[in-house]
Every structure is written in structure tokens, then in C-alpha cells.
User: Fold these one by one.
Assistant:
Number 1:
Amino acid sequence: MSIQVSSELLDGMVLALLKREDMYGYIITNRIAESVSISVSTMYPVLRRLTTAGLLETYDKPFQGRNRRYYRITVAGRMKLVEILKDWEQYKISLDEILYPKNEKHHTREGVK
Amino acid sequence: MTVEEYFSELAQELQPMPAADRDSVLEYYHEYTEDAHITSGDALTVQLGTPKQLAAQLLANQSIKETVTVNETAPTKPHYRQNAHNTWLIVLAVLSLPLSLPLSIAVGAILFAGLIAIAAVAFAVLITLGALVLAGICVTIAGLYIGFTLIFSNLFVGMAYLGFALIGIGLTLLLAPFTYQTTLFFVHATSNFSRYLYTKVTRNKHLSAEGGSQS
């Protein structure tokens, strides 16, 4: 896919993933990379930023004689996710207005009726 | 290149970073490498770029992050300041109430008086026009009546009165449509103005209700 994902959107995707369950870096990277083209090295800064912003917290879990760092969404993170989803919804609508002009007109006409 | 070599080089390149940050970066990528079952430094280079490239990216990100956090905290301060600002404005408004209340009443009274004056002028214009039309009709009827009664005994006086009657007809025909249009205009203007007032008042109410729910 040639469309680049903004960092705000990437934040939202990570928060949405972690809302379902706690994950560690490798899994998060893979899940995100399944749907958008990102390089492996972009994930660390995202996780780091979200953690320092208090939207995520980390805890270590022993795994095969080493530690795995899990990321967990905080209450602030959940609130941020709601905010991002709202923004995304708005953004999607305003983009669709331009990308699908006919379709959108049809929609608003129905809405007026 | 082995994985260990890759990481020692990365650690070297990350020297400008604070030690705690550097440790957490290295830990993260160590863990990633093990989870991804990457066993050679070359495979790591394919995924992450050379240690130098990765380090440059991380360092750049750190500086961006710092500016971002500065930017993120910046807008909250003016917000508080704005609130304080508003509070002071309210205090000021309350303190100036003894002066501003009579002043606002006076301004309101002046506006009201102006409105009354405009309405009075409009009413006067309408009444005048109506009176002129009525006068035209009266002159017509009187002229016709007197003219016809006098025309047989006194031809010229009777014709003069018939002439007055014709003037009356002309005046009425001229002024009647004009009066009608003017009346319509004033009616429209009044309804438009009251509609404008209504929307203004209701919108203000709506806005204040919204503001109340937000705070």
C-alpha cells in the first residue's frame, strides 16, 4: 500500500490493539505490519512515545529464561483512543466527501429527507 | 556480522542518548531479535537497517519527541491562563455593575426609542398616504355631486367642480398603488425584523446552553 499512515493514526492502531489484550513488541509490530506498511524500526519510537505520555504502561514477564516486556493500555490511553477514533471518523467522512463526491451527495440528500 | 556485533555497534552509535534511554532501546531490540528468531547481524540489518542508520533514526526521533512534548505541554498553559483571564473579566464585570447597569439600561432605552421613532415615522407615512387616497376619493365624490347638480344652472362652475372630481380620480389612481406597495413594504420589514430578533435571541440561548453543558 502506498498510503502512509500518520503517527497519530499509528498511535490509535497500537492503542486499539492493546485495548483487546496486552502484547509485547514483536507481536505489536507484526500485527501493525499486517495492515500497513511500516518498517520494524518505527514501532519502538511509537511505543516509547505512548509510554512516556502515560497512555501505555509496561511490565516484564519471564519467558524462556529472559524477560518479555508487555505493553498494557492505561485509562488515559483508553480515553485517548476514543478521541483518536472520533477524529478518524471525522477525517474519514471529510476525505470520502472528496474521494466519492456522488456517493456523498446521495447520502446527504437521504439525510435531508 | 553476528547479532552481538550488531548490538555493540548500535550501542556505540547511541552514545549521545541518555544511558537509561539507550538501555531501554537496546533491551527492546534484543527482545525483538529473539522473538523474531533472528540469528545473524545481517538479517538484523535487512530488518532494521545498519546500526548507524537505526541509531540515526532513533536519535532523530528522540529530538522530535522532545520538541513534541514541549509542544504538547504548551497549549495547556494558555488554556489555564485563558480561564484565569475569563475569571478576571467576570470579576471586573461584577465590579463595574453599578456603572454598567444604568449605562446598559440607557443604551437599551435609546435603542428602544429609536425603534419607536422609526415605527412612528412609518405609521405617519402610511396614515398620510391613506389620508391622501381618502381625500382623493372624497374630492371625486363631492366634485361629481356638486358638478352634476350645478352644471344645469351654472355651466362653468359645474364644469370646474367636475374638473376637481377628475383631479381627485387622478390623485387616487396615482396614490392608491403606491400606498398599497408602501404598506406591504412596512409589513414585510416588520416581520423580517421580528424574525431576526427571534433568531438572535434563540441562538444566544442555544449558545449559552451549549457553553453551560461544556463547562
Number 2:
Amino acid sequence: MQTTSRLDDVKHLRDIFNAQNSKELKVAFDALNSSIIISEEDLEVQFNRYFVGPMEPIADPFASIYIDDPDVVMSKSTLHVRELYETMGFTNPLKNIIPDDHLGVELDAYYQLLYLEEAKEITYLRELRHYFLHEHLSLWVPRFIARALEQSEHDSKAMIFILLQLKSLLIRETTTQGVTA
Amino acid sequence: MSYSKENVESIVNNGISRRSFLKGLAASGVLSSFPGGILQANEDLNTKIPYLGEKSYQTFRNACPRNCYDTCSIKTYVKDGVMQFIEGATESTYTRGGCCVKGNSYVKRVYSARRLKFPMMQVGGKGSGNWKRISWDQAMDIIAKKLLEMKKEDGTLLGAALTKYSGNFGITHYGIEGMFNSIGYTTRLAGTPCWPAGIDAQNLDMGDMWCNDPEEMKDSKFIILWGVNPASNSVHSMKYIYEAKKKGAKVVVIDPVFTEAASKASQYIQIKTGTDGLLALGMAKIIIDANLHDQKWLDANSKGYKEYKAYLDKEIKLDNVSKITGIPLAMIKELALSFAKAKPATIWMGYGMQRHTNGGSMIRAIDAFVAVSGNIGKYAGGARYGHLSTWGFNYAALSQPKPEGSVGYTGPEGAKGEFAQVGGEKAAYTDRFLNINKTARELINAKEPKVRLLWVACKNVFAQDFDRNQLIRAFQQLDLVVVADQFFNETAKWADIVLPVATQFEEYDVNVSYWHYWLTLNEQAIKPLFEVKSDLEIAAMLSKRMNQLQPGSCTFPQSVDTKAMMVKEFNPGIYEQFGIKSWEELKNGPVKAKAVIPYADGKFKTPSGKFEFYSDKALELFGSALPTYLEVRKPYDKFRMTSPHSRWSLHSQFQNLEWMEDVHPEPYVYINPEDAEAKMVKEGDTVAVFNKQGLLRLKAKLTDNVQAGTVLMYEQWYNNNIYNVNELVDDTSSDMGAFKTGAPGVALHDTFVNFRKL
């Protein structure tokens, strides 16, 4: 797999989970080249039913839900991730607004760490990236994916595609590239 | 492994290691190489001072703004911008350092994953479940355009309706009504589902609703808890009741249900529902006949005692009282006489009792009994119901002028709210008032113009208003329903737009109680999560958009700061009453109003200036000058159903939180074993409870805490459970309420049902 593709995959998934409206979501989704044809509105309606709300979504995209407490955000694991970000040299303009362990924010951190290594050849944070991947992301993202897939509806090909892309990314990062790159 | 867990955790958690790591990071060029995204490179990275590993706590003053007697003063502990825990403020002798189980769950409420996070629009029609995110600007644009379009087409804004009640009793939350005031003459769901019949009763008798300080109860010699269950729903009051009991006072609970408070009392008297007024009349007759009434006080302070006594002599037969109330005559006599002999003695009347077709008359009868016994105007005495004597704020957020040229309703002037009664100038027009207790039918029937837009705030209409099935029809015929809330409840399900609202920890406000006498500052303790906004900010954004589209169409300030708005609510009267010079003193903790004993000076705000056994106003409005016995609603089905408050929720709030779900996961119908046996229902069976309004399926619990002939279900909103007691409750009015709150109350405990095993 090309280096650019590895980085791009994280970036597109990040952009999907950080999209604030139908248009942003559709652009990020189309960038994954799924060949699934879906309207902006249908994509967002499905995405919200899975991950956003306002009704209880199928799978909440916050680490704390899977690690600490199934009902609350901003708990222990959220603050652990905050400490990690701060040690990595990040500042978070959305601190205390969006929980630090929201999947979109975590993918953003992971993308930027990967970018340092892949595009800038700076390896200073590589150990922290591996720790973040193995000791944090791997603890909850597979459970998040499993919960969402378990309850997936027949008409949600686009959501299943997003989840499988995420799963595939995580497997690649934690097995081959994650360790050997 | 390409990393060492121990090594990384040492870097993150050990101050010295983190400092040297960050020094290396700064030197490695990382910061200038991050591509940037949500997270940004920290240009102000502090590599000089070792990271101490532990961030310190900040504390904030907060108040519980829910519709509860106790209105707790809270101290909130925040670390690095995240709420860690709360505790009851120790400065308030009432809260005394502890909150209830619901209050203690506030951290979980604020950070509940289930909170509404973004403004959203339902795109597949109401109830479709297809939701899209919209920005605040888009939301305000849609609402503003709809309002202006309606104004153009109808010539007025009476097609826009507001329903708002007790979800947040903070004073600045009257800014929601202020928002509607600021756009023109509109339609309001007026009145209160809570306590209106009792408010009218107390106002007819005493010219006010004004109770003694509950902290005085510790010195009462006799306490009757009449249809009130503080052990569940005013837990902070219990310590005074326990103290009185410990000092020898008798505590009697009169209630159709054997409640938690009853289990703590000296005596429990199970009364037949809806006959309390008759019991009070009988008790008055008994003490007058025994010459234990306070003739001196009555002569000096009352009007119509003679007529009242003549009524008791002629109409009240003690054998009948015993038969109708279901209480042995000897027990009634003992109760009345021992109450009359104890001084001071007090009665606390709950709000459930007046939710009957004869509710107001029952409160009047109990007031009269307390008056006859000479306990009105006495320390640790009183006929306690509630008070609003500490609510004299400016209502600055509420008081917004109408835009120039506004046209409104020309029908008879309607209502007010019971809390914030700000006198406006006499105008040619008024708002249009619909009865909040008949929300469904009023929305459907309103004409010229019909209601097209409904704004819901501080209220879960589907959980709290009556006749759910008719409500669905009412919502479906509206063009635009806007629901501003913290959680996705059933009302939100039937909305077109949901707006996420801040909790009290995310905004400034100020709170007082309708029971105790404390004043509490509510500070913003944390940043608003996600995209939530305070109700005031929402009003300001709407004003901004309306004025962009049509200058002058909304008078609400176009930007607000909740702290500045809170400060505007204070006035010299409040400062004087609470003995403070500035609101800033409240940062040191809550303060209590200067002590006063209601009516101790013998001055009543009735037309006669006296306690009125005989009220001309009552005759004019409700057909009876005296507190007389009025029979309760006749059954229209086999069993009476009552739907009181649960200790796990506050109306529709709190039950959806994890802690409450853990201990109280599902609703039950509580049935007397005698009735259950007749219907062959066993503990845990699923039963259908039904009547002409609707049908509910739920599990049965058998208990003789409820009387034979009555079933009980708590009024609650459960997350992920279709249960809604208002499926069965119709909107029949109670006798009183229209005098002081604009609309009669609702007789929700006069609901009748049948049930069968499924």
C-alpha cells in the first residue's frame, strides 16, 4: 500500500467523523471511493442514526463509553487522552466542548502523528503514536465497530462500508504498518 | 513491540520526565511540522516548569433549578474544565451539605452521552426519526422566516404559541417568555398543571400563598403531613420533622397511599381519596364542639366564622364523615383534639390533594381547620402549602417590549404565570391564552388564526400534559414545532427542530425556592458542551436573525451574556430581604431571607384584610363562599388511578440517567392484593391498564400500600420505554386555579381505569 494512501485513509475517515453537515460528510465519504451511490441527505440521516443522534445512536463514537462507563462522556479515559495530546505537543481549541476521546478527534491526532513520520520523517512521537494505537484506540474502536455492525440495518451499505474501512485501517496499523513502518 | 508502556506512562505522568520530553519535542521540529486539524500545535508549550501531574480543583456555586421544594444550594468541583463531583452547600442550613440521589447524579446528567448535542431538523416528517444536523444560523433562519411569514399572512403573531413550564425555575429562564414578548402578541399555554387549585384556595382564604419557614417545623408540637411525602420528594425537610418527633411532637400522615413519610410517622391514617376536605370540616366541628377553638384569634382576625360554624352545625354529620372518609370516628376525634391541644401545631398540604375536581375546596377546608385551631400566624404553626415571597426579582429577562405596531388578541384578558407576575401597561391588545392543562384540544381548536408554530422549552409536553393520543394529533397539524431541551424525549420525537439547551452548570442564573427561604447564585462552572446554548442565547440569536430579515421585528437583545442578565434580576428589595449589599456576596454561599412569620401581624391580603372563612370572591368565581364539602368526581371506570411523583425522578427529569435506571429500571402498576386476586393477577404479571383514553401494558406489583379500588402508577419519562401515564389521564379540570394562575388545574388523580392480565 502506498504511503499516501495510508495517510489519506486516516484523513478521510477523520473527516467523516468530524463532518458538521451533509455536504462535508458526502465529500469525505466519496473520497473513500466506495462506489456506493447515496444522496447527501440519506447519507447524513443514516450517519446520524448510527453515530450522532438526536435519538440514542447505535454506537456512540467516544472512547469513554467503551472503556469507562456506557452512559457518560468526559470521564477517566477522556482525560487520559487529553494528557496524551498535551504530551504530544497538541493544543485543543475544542477542549471541554467536544470530548477529547471523540473518534473524530482521535483520528485527527493519529493522522497528524502519522503525517510527522510519513511526510516529514520526524520520529520523535512514534513511540507515543504506538502507545496511543495499542493502548488506547485498540481498546475501544474494535468494540465500537462491532457494536455498530451487530445492529446494522440492511439499508445501511454506506455505514457498513465506513465501519469496514475503519476496521481495515485499524488492522493494518496494528499489524503490519503499525509496527514495522 | 516498538513502544514501552511504562516508558510512555512515565513521560505522561511524571513531571520531570514530561518536562524533558517536551524540551526534546520542541527541539525536534514537531511543532512546526504538524499539518493541523482539530488539534493544533501548542506554540506556548511550557518546557520550563515540571508538570505536577495533578491539576487543582476550582469550585463554583450552583443551584438545583428543578421543580422541587428543596431547590438545593450546590457546590461544584471542577478540574481542568471538567466537573468532577458536586456536594450540597454547607452554608445553607436547609441543604446542609447534602443533595438527594437525583442531585448527586448531576455530573452524570451533564456528561450523559444522551444529551442533545447539536441543533437538528427532522427531515422525514414528525416522528420519522430521520434527522439532519443544521447550524444555529440555519435553525434561526428557518424559525425567523416562519414567524415573519405568519405575521404577514395573519396580520398578527398569534399563530405562534409557547409552552414553557417548570423544567428550569431559574429567574433568567423567564427570558423564554421574554423572547415571545419581544416578537409581538402571541399565543401562550397558560396556567399550571402543578398547584393552581391550592393557590386559589389559599388566596381566597388568606389573600396570599405564604408558608412558614420549613426549618421551624423542628419546634412544632404536632405535624400533620397531609397528602405530602417529603421522605421521597423533599428529603431536606425530613430532618426538621425527625427533630420535632424526637422532642416529643406527634407526626401524623394522612394519605390514601402508605408512603415513605408514612413509614416514618407516629401515626398513619389511610383516607379514601378525595374526601380530605370532609375530614377537615369534621375535625373543625369536633374542636369547636369541644371548645378547643381559638375564639380570641377568630374574633380578631377572621371574617365569616359564624357562617362557617353554622354550616358545620347544619351540614357536617360526624358519622357521615367517618363513613365517607373510611376513618373510624374515634380516630378522627383523637386526631382533631390532640392537634387542637398542641401548640404550635402545623399542617403541610401536598399538591396531589388538589389535583381533584374538588381539590381547591379541600385546601380551603384544611386552611379553615388550622385557622380554627389558632395556628395561623404562629411560629412553627401554619397551613403550609408553598410561598413566592422571595421571588421579588426584576424579571428583566422576561420584560421585553412588543415591537412597534404589534397587533394581538382582542378577546377577554386571560392569564398570568404564578411565579412572575409583572404588571405591564394597559394595552389595546393582549396575548392569546390557551389552557396548558388542555394543551392538546386547545392547540387543535384554536382558530383565527390557528396555531402553526409551537415552541417548547423547559417542558416535556408528552410526559406532562394530558391525553397523549390527542397530543400526537395536535402536534401533527402544526407547521413547525421547535423543542429546546437537554435530552431526546417523546416531545422531541414529534418536533421538526430540536435545539440543545445548556444545563445550569453551563450558564449563570439565580434561584430561590417556593418552600424554603434561601437564595442561591448559580455560576457557570464549565463551558457549554458540543453546540448547546442557554435559552437566553437562543432568544438573542433569534432576535438577531429576525432583525436582519425585518428590522424592528424583535426587541430582545441581539447578544446576551447570562451573567449580565442574571445581575439585572437583582434589586434593592431582594438585597434588603436577604441582608446583602450585592449579588457578589452570594459567591461565598447561599443566604437566607430575614425571618418572618406569615400573618403574625394579623394582616391578610384578602378584601376584608382578615382570614376569610366567607369569601365573596369564592362565591363569585366558584359558587361557594364557604369551604364546603364538595364530592369528588364520580367514577367512570372500575378503579381509580393515581399518578403521583416518584422518588427517582422529578416529573420527567432524571429517570433517564444510569443511576436511576439501575435502581428503578421499569415502570410498574401498583395494585392492592384484593383487587389483584379478583382479576387473577400475580406479582410480576404483565397487565393491560386501560380506559376510554388509551391503554398501557406494564408489570404489576402487589401491595396494600395502595387501597383496594385504586391502582397507582408514577408519572415519569423513561428513556427507551414507551410508558407514558398520560396515555390514560384525561384533561378534566379541578375546581379552582383560574383566579390566580389563569386556568384551572387538572384533576389527574380522578382518572379511572380497568385492568386485566395479559
Number 3:
Amino acid sequence: MAERKILLGNEAMAYGLLEAGCTLAASYPGTPASEIVGTLAALKRSGSIAMHVEWSINEKVALETALANSYAGRRSAAAMKQVGLNVAADPFMSAAYTGVKGGLVVIVADDPGPHSSQTEQDTRQFAMLAKVPVLDPLGPAHARDLLHTAFDLSEDYEVPVLFRPTTRVCHARQDMEIRPFRQDQPAPVFEKDPARWAATPKFRFLLHKQLNEKLDAVSRDSRLQPVQLNPAVSAEKAAGVIVASGAVCTHASEILKDLGLWEEIPLYYAPMPFPLPEDFLTGLLDQARRILVLEETQPVMEAQFRDRAKVQGRLSGHVPREGELLPETVEGIVRTFAGLPEAAAPKGAAAPGRRPTLCAGCGHRAAFFAIRKVFPRGIYPGDIGCYTLGLNLGAVDTVLCMGASISQAAGFYHAFRDSGQNSRPIVATIGDSTFYHAGIPALINAVIQGCRFVVVVLDNATTAMTGHQPTPAEGNTLDGRSVPKVSIEDLARACGVRHVSVGDPYDFEAFTGLLKAAKEHTRDPENGGMAVVIARRPCLMDRKQPKPDRKPVPAINDKCQGCGFCITHFECPALVFHGKEEAVTVDDVLCSGCGVCAHVCPHDAIEIPSQPQAGKESNHS
Amino acid sequence: MKQQIILSGLGGQGVLFVSKILGEAALARGLSVLMSETHGMAQRGGNVISHVKVFEREKGKPEGERDAATDPAWHVSPLIRPGHAHVLVALHEEGVKAHGHFLSPNGTLVCNRTPRTGPGDVDATGIARKLGNPVAANLVLLGFAAASGALFCSLDDLRRVLEKLGGPRRDANLAALEAGAEAGGE
């Protein structure tokens, strides 16, 4: 009997790529997509696979790299989260026209909710915009299988295929049989064809025409037609039918069975929500009395019905226009559709939970506290990463997209300088990985536009939020080859910044000094300009980093007035508030021994004992 | 559906680890499992939830020959609806507030809480602290839940999963599981 394993959806997709003979996978990490290439990267590090695997500097570069490997006749994949495709939109749109040789599957994970993203955008609409087919898997095991079809489809029609799992597919775990990986690596063949690979606008028109013809043929492909999951009931006899795709289809399936409607309402699953075949759309409009469309997150299938008089969905207002379609939401919609009474609401609805916060001992917290201290009236454009949570500390005022902290700081600079308010300090914060990804052009632009503000690069030596993927500072490829390390300070200087400093935010006084010097530089009328301060402190959660020396767990002395300053302005999870006028305590399980909180208390009530305490006794008393 | 379990806790408490152990226990029993978990931003100290669904493995066509229409395992929703969980395992008492509504009216609550407010409560953190391993409160609670008969699997199943998992924490993990089981005593 084949070995059976429980795989995360993203692991299952990585296995699917390997089974299908993919030869190159490139990605930039982003929740909920990170573990797809993360799984491949781990296999690559252990020497178990031949595939070229890379954490690219950003999604645009990842997709372009994968595309060229496909031009050379080899199966390729790029993986990213939905907003990553915004970054890769330029190559993606154009790749639809040039088409591919070896199968190219672009896996883009959507995040309805959203749980860990800036937008709820529906990548399937990107497929419509670019005119490429998009597949929408049901769950982990199905995603693995459907990837095989995706590669076949891509090669048969020479078109890139979008593969769109949602968070509930990526981050579900399911048991499945383990299969062998395909071992052959086809030799690269690149046939020069400038009219296609380097097409000028005149030829692009022809490529567009070919793309339209490909898309028509793809919509009729027998492998990806919508399928009725409960064929015992016919659309003509039923009071209505449901068309669904992705994880929402599994909710609908379970709910129809639970409500005794499985034999009453036909449920169609569309593995390829775009392009839907014309025959299916017109056939259903002919046969069905009412059609309910369940899909995430925007009306893609619904919009393809030309006559929507009997179609219910997001456009008609029968399905909420935003938010994840949780099974309880789907149950409500299905009950209404079937004319059943509302479900009894369960007692005690969800309480607003705890908000996320930086980990105890995180170097970012120390850096943010220092920034607030040195620039009390500052404007703080922030960026995408763990350190977005600096907003809890009042040290992040804007968060837009990757790299925007620096360009937005420039925008604020121009706004205030042009109205004569030179004194408003601006401090942009950006993580190391985000700086490499999209911060460099913004920094060059700030320099050449004569901006004067401080950029603090929060360098924790990893891409922390998404699971500690390496950055270009690591100096090694995944298969262990040594490559040049690309240093942030060298990059900053090469961008034209004349004031660049590096410090450890744990060393609080010295780091505060660096910030003050940077502030002076931005104000120096003669030689001043942009300043970059690199706050270097490895992520505590990254097992690859050396463990820092632990200071003893801090002691709270009798000067503590329970004022809550440390809780509000420092928000370390290890500092526990017990109400006004009660002394704060330290949770010794959470405390990492960074010692920074001793600099925080306005009443000097937090002390670091000089001798390590005996054992690991708690301060709870 | 054999059993639907909600695991609730705070980021860093090991909710994911407990759900993995339960998944392996299901697999060892020849059952199928579908689980959903929280990743990314929400893991940073926020409320974390894991949905675990355990069900009979349907024999049908061999894998690889199945399609979307014929594989019943592909039609299971990865999420549990409010009011439908058979068991709620709360690694932190805040989990009862945040995720208590998932529990079915006939469901079983198991909660790491002191002082105890009911038969499903246990001071898992206190027990783990006594073992010198405060981060193992998750396994203490799991042992407690299994010993009190709340789960689809037995304490023995969980022991075997932890033994097979091995690693440098093997003995400490097993000790935590046993200490919890003792508190949940038959």
C-alpha cells in the first residue's frame, strides 16, 4: 500500500509540481502562498530534487524567470500571493500574448477575508483581464491532481495557466497517498522566433487574435468542463441549481447534504471558472429556473452569464459583496435559496479577539520605541511585514503595499516642504526583504528628487512574517552554492544616500544616538539630505540565527504605579497589565530577556537584575 | 463525520502542533482528516484557531483515477460551522470567549483554566510549569482531553504519535501528555 501522509495544501501543490515534471519554480514569499516554494526549497536544500528552485527578489522577477524557462520548452511555475501578481502584472499580461512552450503554471493564492493581505482581490478577474484560463481547486488533494491538468492544458494550447487556490486550500491539511516525482528533465530547446518572443506592436495584434482563438478552444476542453456532483437530480426538475468553484463548493456540498437538499438541488462544480464554456452557460439558462452562483471573492462566473434575470450571486445582492464565504454564510444563502427557515444562531457569537502584536523580544519593537522617542512629532510611513504591527505602538501611520513606505515618505516630504513646513520630521520604516523587493527604486527616487527624510531599514536578516525565507544578504543559493552577499548599506550608498549608519536596537542608547545623527543630517542646510539607519537585530523566531545572550528576566520594583505606559507604548506580550494602580508583572515564559524594557518605564520601575536569577522563577507573586 | 474539533489558543501556544498530533492519530487509525489553520499576521500573538475534521476513509476508485465528481474526500469543507463542533479544546481561557460559539450544544469543552469552573477545566499551564516545561501546556491539555474520553482517539494513540515523532523533546512531550492524562484520570 502506498504511503499516506497529511499534507498542507501548499505542500500538496509542491508535490503536484514535482509529480508533473516541473523543472523550475520561482516565488517571492507571501501568505497564504509561501509554503508552496517553501516545501520545494526544503527539498532542494536537502539535495532531494533536481528542479531549480528560487526565492526571487520579487514576483515580477520570479515570473519572468519562470517564463523564459518555459520558452526553452521546460515545465515551469511561479508562485505568489494575490497582491504579488499586481507586482508581476506587467510580465503576466504580456506572457498571455507570447504564450509558452513548456507548460507554465502561475499559482496565485487569494485571501478572502482577508486574513493576511491588503486586499480581497480575485485573481480570477486577473485571468479575465489577461485572457488566460484559471483553475480553482477544491482542497489540498484535489489541488495536487489539478496541477497535472494545468500543465497539460498549458502545453496543449501554449498558454500560461493561472492556478488560483484560496487560503482555505493553501492552509488546509489533508491525508493523501504519496506518489513518485517525475525524474526526467527535458533538455532546453529555444527556437528563435522574434515575431513571437520579441513581437512589435503589429505582431502583438496577431498574437492577441491567436490568444482569443486559444481561449475559445480552452473553454471547450473536455478535461475542465463544469461537472454536476449530484447527478441523480436534474436541472429541469429542480427549483434551482447551484454553480460553485473552489473551497466554497465544498461548503455548499456539505450543507446541501446536511439540509437534506442533496437530492433536490443540482450542484455544479466548475474547475475552470474562466473561461466557462458557452454551451454550459446557455444550456443552464435554458434548463434551470434559478441559478445561484457561489464563488470567492468577486463575480467571475456570475458575470459570464449574459442574461442574469434568473442568476443570483454577488451582482444581484444575494451573496455578500465582501468578506470570506464562510460555511455559515453559505448555509444562510442556501437556506434562503431553498426556501428554508434561517438557522438558529449559536449562543455567544464570536468575541473580538486579541490583536496580533510583535513577539516578545522583537528588535522591531525596540526600534519603533526609539523612533517615537527621537521623532515625537513625526509622520511614520510604514511597509509590509511583521513590522506593520508597529502601528500598535503608534509608530506606523500608513501601510499601502510593498516598498511604498519610502515613496510615500517622499510624497509627505513634498507636501509639507511645499507648504513651508520644513520642520515636520518623516521617518519611513521598511524591512530588509521588502527593501530588496521594492524599496530600492523608491530610495533612488527620493535621493534624486532632493528629499530629506530618514529611512529606517528594520533588518532582522530574514523574511520573518512568511516563515523565515532567506534574503539576498544570505550569500547562498538553496543548493548551497556560495554567491555574493548583497548588503543593504552598500545598496543605500549606491542609491546616492550619503548618511548611512548601522546599529543594534537592543543597544538602546547607541541606537537612539544614530537616529539623532540621521535627523541632524536631514536638517543640515549645507551637506544634508536623505539618511538611512539600518536597525540590525536577527529575528528571535528564526532558528537559523544564533541565539542572543539572554539578560535576566526583568524585575518590577515598587516604583511601578500601574500607569500602563509600558503596555501602551511598548506592548511587549511578556509585560502583563493588571489594571491601574496594580503593579505590572513579567511573564517569564514569554520574556526573551532582551532587556530593552528597562529603558521604557518613565518611573524607572523596570530593572534588569545584575546577576542571573537562580532557576527560572516567575515574577508572579 | 466522526468528530469535529476546534482548537483555540494564542499565537505561540502550539495550537498547530496539537492539531498535527491529532491528524497523525487519525491517520494511524485508518481515518481521513481535513484541517484548517491560521498562518501569517494572525499568528503573531493573536487568537489562533484550528479546525480538525476526522471522518471514515471512503473506499472507491484508486487515487489518481478519481475526479472532482467522484471523490467524496474532496467534497468535505475544511471549516466547521458555529454550533457544530463536537469538542472545543481551549489552550487559553480567552479561546472560550473567542471561539466558544463553535461548540455544539451537546459538545464537550476542554479548557486550560485556573481556578477550575467545571469538569472540563484543568490548570495545564500550572502542571506544565511543575514539569519545568511551561510551553508544553498544550500537550498537558491534550493528554487531559484524551484521558477524559473527549476525543475520537485514545491516550495510547497519542503516545504512539509522539513516540514516532521523536526529536529532542520526545521525552518531555510524553511526560507532559502523561501528566495531563493523570489530571484527566479515568
